[in-house]
Amino acid sequence: MAFAWIDEQAELRRRAGLVRTLRPRPSDSPLLDLASNDYLGLARHREVTEGAARAARTWGGGSTGSRLVTGTTELHQELERELADFCGFEAALVFSSGYAANLAAVTALAPHGSLIVSDAGNHASLIDGCRLARGSTQVVAHADPDAVRKALLTHEGPAVVVSDTVFSVDGDAAPLAGLAEACRERGAGLVVDDAHGLGVLGDGGRGAPQAAGLAGADDVVVTVTLSKSLGSQGGAVLGPAGVIDHLVNAARTFIFDTGLAPVAAGAALGAVRLLRREPERAARARAVAAELHARLSAAGLEAVRPDAAVVSVRAPSPEGAVRWAADCRAQGLAVGCFRPPSVPDGISRLRLTARADLLDGQIERAVGVIGETRP
Ligand code: PMP
């Protein structure tokens, strides 16, 4: 039997209580949502959905081809100009996902003979970028500029340091200024994934690199997703114009992938314009995160102090985490659940997202449910 090994794996997963299931989300879910990545509550905002609807009417449902053939519309280029300008970088390039943007940035900037220094807590898409790149990878201790410095000293020639700006599991922030300093001492490039920083950190949500004074630097490249704070779908790489031109010519996930759907570009463009007009949304998401953390801690729960809008709560065991999340759901609260193998350190957590549009009463209710259902 060709796939008998799959049945064996499935049996082990069942026994450990770690089977993953797909559950459709109703369009009018009664659950209080602390599980999605819709940090600013924009996925259903009228300006975002109207941006998508207008794009669909003008350009159709799909982009019809790769970006280099028929898949680039004026809307894609408008979004690229808007994203670059908003975040303070010279140029931007949009991709069909943040995952594809990360694969592109890492592989295209780490040629044969180069060194990639990668934080141990990086997102799977950066890890996969390292695996696909021709350069060799050294994984270094989490959020540790000295470990980066040491790794860079082992290599002569091109090097890039790769890190999330806000780590998706615990919601802690990378020491961006320290990483940039370590890079500059050795002439290395810095590639940071601002998936969880855009829309939440920096002035009016301009992102973690802007908050760290790195916007527009000629040795910094930023990747983002359009699928979290911007309430759409897709990804982008921002950086110096020369780097972006290089990606157009060399990044396989740009060249061989169908361009981002115009509807997604239209939705994201609507979101960026809204963020410019309503910069207070970013600060509100941070305030909700601080409030959630304070209330969880007061209730005796072990929560990591959030640097952005992700709040992580420690669970006693993988099975305990799965049960805890299910019990929350039964009480009307949707929370994320991270457990092995999604977390490299083996520590299971509930993952809460501090949406800017959560009301104080909803925060109180969420913490109440999490406390009452604790395993
Ligand atoms: N980077 C990080 C840190 C993420 O959390 C995610 C999404 N889970 C991605 C990249 C991938 O982005 P996308 O979902 O747009 O592919």
Automatic annotation (TrEMBL):
It comes from the Bacteria. Signal peptide: none annotated. InterPro entries: Aminotrans_II_pyridoxalP_BS, Aminotransferase_I/II_large, AON_synthase_class-II, PyrdxlP-dep_Trfase, PyrdxlP-dep_Trfase_major, PyrdxlP-dep_Trfase_small. Its cofactor is pyridoxal 5'-phosphate. Gene3D superfamilies: Aspartate Aminotransferase, domain 1, Type I PLP-dependent aspartate aminotransferase-like (Major domain). It catalyses: 6-carboxyhexanoyl-[ACP] + L-alanine + H(+) = (8S)-8-amino-7-oxononanoate + holo-[ACP] + CO2. Pfam families: Aminotran_1_2 (PF00155). Its EC number is 2.3.1.47. The keyword Transferase applies. Coiled coil: none annotated. Keywords: Biotin biosynthesis, Pyridoxal phosphate, Transferase. The keyword Transferase applies. Residues 31-370 form the Aminotransferase class I/classII large domain. Pathway: Cofactor biosynthesis; biotin biosynthesis. Belongs to the class-II pyridoxal-phosphate-dependent aminotransferase family. BioF subfamily. Homodimer. PANTHER family: 8-AMINO-7-OXONONANOATE SYNTHASE, CLASS II AMINOTRANSFERASE/8-AMINO-7-OXONONANOATE SYNTHASE. This is 8-amino-7-oxononanoate synthase. The lineage of its organism: Bacteria, Bacillati, Actinomycetota, Actinomycetes, Kitasatosporales.
